[in-house]
Amino acid sequence: MHSALRTLILVCAAAxxxxxxxxDLRSTTQFRVCADPANSPxxxxxxxxxxxxxxxxxxxxxxxxxxxTWFPLGMxxxxxxxxxGDCDVVMGYAQGDEMVQNTNHYYTSIYGIVTxxxxxxxxxxxxxxxxxxxxxxxxxAGTPPATTMARxxxxxxxxxxxLTVDRRVLDPVGDMIREVHDGTLDAAVLWGPLAGxxxxxxxxxxxxxxxxxxxxxxxxxxxxxxxxxxEQEWKRELNSQIRRNQDQINQILTEAGVxxxxxxxxxxxx
Length: 270
Prior knowledge:
alpha/beta; D-Maltodextrin-Binding Protein, domain 2; 2 domains; two-stranded antiparallel sheet; 31% helix; 21% strand; elongated; disordered N terminus
C-alpha cells in the first residue's frame, strides 16, 4: 500500500497549475493505450489479448485509431507510461489504486480453482474443502487465495508462483495450468481473467469460480480503466462509453473466456 504522505502529495499536486496542465497531455486524435506487451491473455503486442479487443472497441466508438505504449507491468509501469504522458488510458486496472484515477468498472471477475475435468477435485468450490488437504496446489504468492489457503491449513502443499514477473520471460500462471494438465499439480487457484481464457478451449481442464467464499480477503474484484488523476472530463467520457457499450464489453469478455460475476461476487453472469 502507498503511504498517506504519498496520497497527500498527489492530492496537493493536483491543485497546482502545473498539475492542471497534465490534462493537456491527452491526445484528441488517438486512443493511446498503456499496456504490457506480453500479458497474455489480457494484453499482447500481437493484438491477441482480450484487452486489445476492448481497446479496439473503445477506439471505434470514440472514432479514434488505437495506438500503444508498451512497458512491462511492475515497478515503474505507471510512471513510465501514463504519468509520462506517452499514453492516456490503462486497460484492466483494479479499482482502488491511488496512482491513477479509476473509471467506473466495466467488469467484475473472480479467482477460481483450475482442475482436470476428470479429477476427484473437480467438484470442489471452496478453499476450505477437506478434499484439498494433502494435495499439490498451485497459487500465486501474495494473491488473496494464498492467504485463505494458508488459513485453511494448506500451506505445506502450496506451490507458489511469483506475483510480479516480466511476462516476456516468465509465465507462472501458464506454467501452473500446464502442471495441472499433466498431473504435476492437483489444482491451481488463479485469477479468472488470466486462467479462464487459457482453460476454456481445453476439454481436459475446468475453471470453478470461488463464489462461495465468505471470509476475508474477498475473491472478486472490479476492473476499471486508469487515467491521470486530474483528468475528470476524460474519465466522464470513458464512463459514458462504458455505460453505453456494456453489452458489447460483456460479449468480448465472455467470448474470451473471462468469468464474469455480479458486483458482489455471488453469481456468474456468463
